[in-house]
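hey m, so remember when u said the tokens were messed up on ur end? i reran from scratch. heres the input so u can diff it against urs
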Amino acid sequence: MSHEHANLDAFRRFRERMNERILEAGNLDIRRFFALDGRVYEDGALDVRTKEMLGLVASLVLRCDDCITYHMVRCTEEGLSDEEFMEVLSVGLVVGGSIVIPHLRRAVATLEEHSVTGGLGSAVAEIIAEADGPTVPFKRIGLPSAFSPYIGSQEYLQELHGLTEDGILKVLEPLLETSNAAKRAPKVKAVSPIS
């Protein structure tokens, strides 16, 4: 985005405030265009959800970060899953070509930065679950596995979701205490009823 906003609500408020200021000027052509822009995304032969996905693809192809953010907000409100977002983004990439990649990166960062689902955390969890030998304490720390309504700098998002050094320690300390207590507990030997 060209402006850093604390969250998507701030982005929406900024957008609405600026639209009001533009419309207050009373230019007939601008007013007509804004009215058309609003009406084209209403239900018709295509539903609102589909139109917002098309808007997101067009915004990627046109490389308009504010437009991308707006349509990501609307697609989220229309209930798109992470998988649907990725398919929409892939269509934008194919249509727009490699020049879309930087905008695709920002869109994906907005969509899933530090998500606990997928990526490295899931890979490590799978390895631990399938490993032979002693169990180890494991906790995935990150954003919920859904589109976050907040945007901003990485530092802002990390602090907001407890992904700072202090936040991570706060989550891990009880886990480590439990693990250490388990190590000190007397061992119980499993006995088979058939032996």
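this time it looks ok to me. Confidence is low (pLDDT under 50) at residues 1-6, 188-195. if urs says something different then somethings off w ur setup not the seq
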